């Protein structure tokens, strides 16, 4: 049986038991070492179909995604606090060890988005659902790719929005264009109809049925013609993040899905509430475009959102670790 014979699955399970036994998931040597092992294990291509796994491994996968999500949130919160200690926090984003991954992911998503929009129409209003305490996607897109657009970030956690807001306030331009809303997205209705583009973070809706409800809610309330960018996972990366199957995008026209083959973990699905599609042969990586190639079912049923754990984290913060209070080992 695949659950018993596949070496990758056996190792994933072994790492899960070690991670779940940790006393804390806050940034420290033990946490970073185990999660680095997990991510390095899951990055290479692997023909695993997580939907076909036995129930015991399915449960481990669900729990593992939640543990990774918790660790990711704690890491972001820590670095958000660190950045807020500077007079101009956004001048120091390189202190976050995965900032370059966000640069890559934002560039990818902007290129995908641009190929499905009229060349003379840049988005004016963008929503990001599940922005967290360190909203790097919105910050990078607003600074580097969509300098005229307004960004509305939604998170259910008021402390996450409070942290994120502190980073933006000292910047005259971004504090005018980047906004934060504390709300469960399932309670947001009319506002969703105002956005040209909606990004759905990978960890919004970790279980398959939760993700389906969120997507159905977006379909009901987004404006016709608006674009949705949904972060997903493919292959063994589905042990790190939830998977969205393009065939489940009821109420949306599937446009394309991009599966990275490098250290950027998340797949990106592009869809919109209208007809039409554009083929794009220029973007590197595994891209499937509607009417050109029908996508297979993604492995199983979470986005950078991985950011964490992609480098050698035995000393995860490099030279800045000295003198900072977060470098303790977990016991």
CATH level-two architecture: 3-Layer(aba) Sandwich
Count of beta strands: 8
Contiguous helical run count: 9
Q: What oligomeric arrangement do these chains adopt?
A: single chain
The CATH topology turns out to be Rossmann fold
The CATH C-level name is Alpha Beta
N- and C-termini, Cα separation = 36 Å
Q: Choose one word for the global shape.
A: globular
Question: How many independent structural domains?
Answer: 1
Write the layout of secondary structure elements.
Elements: H1 2-5, H2 7-20, H3 29-42, H4 55-84, H5 99-114, E1 125-129, H6 136-145, E2 150-155, H7 158-168, H8 172-177, E3 178-182, E4 197-200, H9 208-221, E5 227-232, E6 253-259, E7 267-272, E8 286-289
Parallel strand pairs: 1-2, 1-4, 2-3, 4-5
Antiparallel strand pairs: 5-7, 6-7, 6-8
Helix pairs in contact: 2-3, 2-4, 4-7, 5-6
Function: Synthesizes nicotianamine, a polyamine which serves as a sensor for the physiological iron status within the plant, and/or might be involved in the transport of iron.
Protein name: Nicotianamine synthase
InterPro entries: Nicotian_synth, SAM-dependent_MTases_sf
């Amino acid at each position: 049986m695949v659950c018993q014979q596949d070496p990758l699955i056996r190792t994933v399970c072994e790492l899960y038991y070690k991670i779940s036994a940790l006393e804390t998931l806050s940034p420290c040597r033990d946490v970073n070492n185990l999660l680095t092992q997990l991510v390095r294990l899951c990055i290479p291509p692997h023909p695993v179909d997580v939907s076909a796994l036995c129930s015991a491994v399915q449960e481990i996968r669900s729990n593992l995604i939640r543990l990774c999500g918790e660790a990711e949130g704690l890491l972001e919160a820590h670095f958000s606090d660190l950045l807020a200690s500077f007079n101009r926090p956004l001048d120091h984003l390189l202190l976050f060890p995965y900032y370059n991954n966000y640069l890559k992911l934002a560039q990818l998503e902007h290129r995908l988005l641009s190929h499905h929009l009229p060349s003379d129409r840049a988005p004016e209003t963008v929503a990001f659902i599940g922005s967290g305490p360190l909203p790097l996607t919105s910050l990078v897109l607003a600074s580097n790719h969509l300098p005229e657009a307004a960004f509305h970030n939604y998170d259910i956690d008021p402390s996450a929005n409070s942290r994120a807001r502190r980073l933006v306030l000292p910047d005259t331009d971004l504090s005018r264009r980047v906004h934060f809303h504390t709300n469960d997205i399932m309670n947001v209705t009319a506002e969703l109809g105002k956005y040209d583009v909606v990004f759905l973070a990978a960890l919004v809706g970790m279980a398959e049925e939760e993700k389906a409800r969120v997507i159905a809610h977006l379909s009901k309330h987004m404006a016709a013609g608006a674009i949705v960018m949904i972060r997903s996972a493919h292959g063994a990366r589905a042990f790190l993040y939830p998977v969205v199957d393009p065939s489940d995008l009821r109420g949306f026209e599937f446009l394309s899905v991009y599966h990275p083959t490098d250290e950027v973990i998340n797949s990106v699905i592009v869809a919109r509430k209208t007809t039409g599609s554009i083929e794009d042969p220029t973007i590197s990586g595994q891209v499937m475009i509607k009417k050109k190639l029908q996508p297979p079912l993604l492995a199983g049923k979470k986005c950078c959102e991985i950011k964490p754990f992609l480098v050698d984290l035995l000393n995860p913060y490099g030279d800045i670790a000295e003198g900072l209070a977060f470098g303790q080992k977990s016991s």
